[in-house]
Specification:
alpha/beta, Alpha-Beta Plaits, RCK_C_sf, Potassium transporter TrkA
Length: about 230
């Protein structure tokens, strides 16, 4: 996967390092040359530039980049300007950092694909979410075990938990399932919220669009994701 991360503060730099360490190609961008120099040995590529300059940003390999992340947090105005510019340039997927509710509303109005809240979400969590195909979210219990939210693979639609044999085949426990629902926002748009279902039972029928909440060893979780 190829990523561009704009803003090498604590969150952006940490995420860029972790994604690089996992074998991804990462371009880390910041307007501060000291930050760029500090991370040039830890991130695939680092560039010092003003991300609000459309001509300069347009020269980046945006078409070849899978995900662009605006991690700027100290200046909300710059964050919004950069996010709007990237949206206009039609990047494949745009993730931006929000500092507060108003900031999040503005980013949603722009049409950002996903919002990051670094104050509540760690770079480790986002690195796993971005690298594991199908993972919606994750929570590490320790170095070996995690609870993850994973999109239901198509081949398991309309099957029961018992049919899939999560314990027997993958050594995983299904805790519950989540369903997405559309609600109206206070700015006239709609947004997706997650509706938590009851504790999963062997007879639970898995439906298209469901998100599985799984508990298990990281190796077994990876094995399940790759099998999908």
């Amino acid at each position: 996967m190829k990523y561009i991360i704009i803003g090498l503060g604590s969150f952006g730099a940490s995420l860029a390092e972790k994604l690089t360490a996992q074998g991804n190609e990462v371009i880390g961008i910041d307007i501060n040359m000291q930050k760029v120099e500090a991370f040039k040995e830890k991130i695939s590529h680092t560039i010092c530039l003003d991300a609000t300059d459309e001509h300069t940003v347009n020269g980046l390999p945006l078409k070849d980049t899978d995900i662009v992340i605006v991690a700027i947090g100290e200046n909300q105005g710059t964050n919004v300007m950069v996010s709007a510019l990237l949206k206009n340039l039609k990047v494949k997927k745009l993730i931006s950092r929000a500092v507060n509710n108003l900031h999040e509303n503005v980013l949603n109005a722009i049409g950002v694909d996903e919002i990051v809240h670094p104050e509540q979400e760690s770079a480790e969590r986002w690195a796993k979410k971005l690298c594991m195909h199908g993972v919606v979210d994750s929570f590490e219990l320790n170095d070996y075990f995690s609870i993850v939210e994973v999109k239901l693979p198509r081949k398991y639609e309309n099957k029961t938990v018992e049919d899939v044999q999560f314990r027997e085949r993958y050594n995983l426990l299904v805790l519950t399932t989540l369903k997405n629902a559309q609600v109206d926002t206070n700015i006239g748009n709609t947004k997706t919220i997650v509706d938590v279902q009851s504790v999963a039972t062997p007879s639970l029928v898995l439906e298209k669009g469901d998100i599985l909440v799984l508990y298990g060893n990281n190796k077994d979780i990876n094995r399940f994701i790759k099998s999908a």
